[in-house]
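Moderator note: this is an archived Q&A kept for reference. The question asked for a predicted structure of one protein chain; the sequence and the answer are reproduced below.
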Amino acid sequence: MKRLIAVVFTIVVFLVFVSCNRTSQDSEYVKKVALNQETIAVGIYKATGFEYPNIKYIAEALKIDGGIVYVTLTDADILKTKLENIDVILFPGMFNGQKIEKLDDEIADIFKNFISKNGKGAIGICNGGGILTNSQDCQSLGLVNIELKENSLSNFNTGLIKFKLSEQGIKLFPELENFDNLIIDFNQGPEIKILDTISDINVLGEIADTEVSFPMFITSKHGKGKIIITNANPESTPGMRWMIPRMVRWSINKKFISYNNNVFRPDLLVNEVNLDNELNGKIKNLILQLDEGKKDEIISAMDELQEIYPWIAAEKVRSLLIEKNDDIKLRAAKYLVDIEYTIVIDDLKKLIKNERRKKVKEQLVAFLNELENMLEQN
């Protein structure tokens, strides 16, 4: 549903430097946006020289909320704009092993002033949140008295993991109060080590069924600003992606809104998945089957992948949308709708435009409508 815009103005500062400072890939997430008085502007920080595999998924999760717009910001952008017109700064996770060892002093001061003096919000996801902490192995601002360490889980690095919320967590995500089996994507996330018990730090959620505490979500304050850090990936968890815009609203003291049942589906994923060597081998073979199998084998592989760990094969399934075989094409479209893969909306529009078979076009239109209805809720 498209929101009605009452008072419109354009964020010019986001775009002044686009043509000369951005590659086409960078500018994919930068667009001229019209805002109303209630809109929250999120800046997604993309430090020069680092790779951020989930930025596109974070952006799609933000689009769920009709009151949020976003822009990606490079180092040059930060220096030029001083985060003017931004309400929340989001630090996405970097590829495993990457860390910011040196941050420009002026950029560091801009971030500190933005949060502490200006009272804005900050969100850190996985190792991207290290910049907000007192971690010793990377450049950090020292705003939250924790450090991010290599996780100590002996038998779990990547997959879908069960977590539980504290009383503080229920206040942030009240819709989850009566759900006992909460599952979230955990991609080698760092361990959050709280350095003292005096600081204003709240543990909102922990990994379930562990003998020792392993925080998954923490919140803190610094000066006038509010901070939330997670070592999990809601943006790549079907049914839980709405947690990202909720974090944004919390961090800037905006009223919570309820999200529709097409994205609020905390009971969609019911089993933990540990991507050990054996399961990785099985998934690899199933993805190979998508490439080399016959029609029934390809569809069977999609069925099995969706049952095991659907997000991991999403981009491969996306490539099947252009298959000539209608059954494969439509099964791929259903797979992507089932996991809320809104990033393929433009793909479906192109398919529909070129589709000549009436029944196939009608089904594709229905899938497109389902995905579009997941966006701009308010």
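Archived answer notes: Confidence is low (pLDDT under 50) at residues 1-37.
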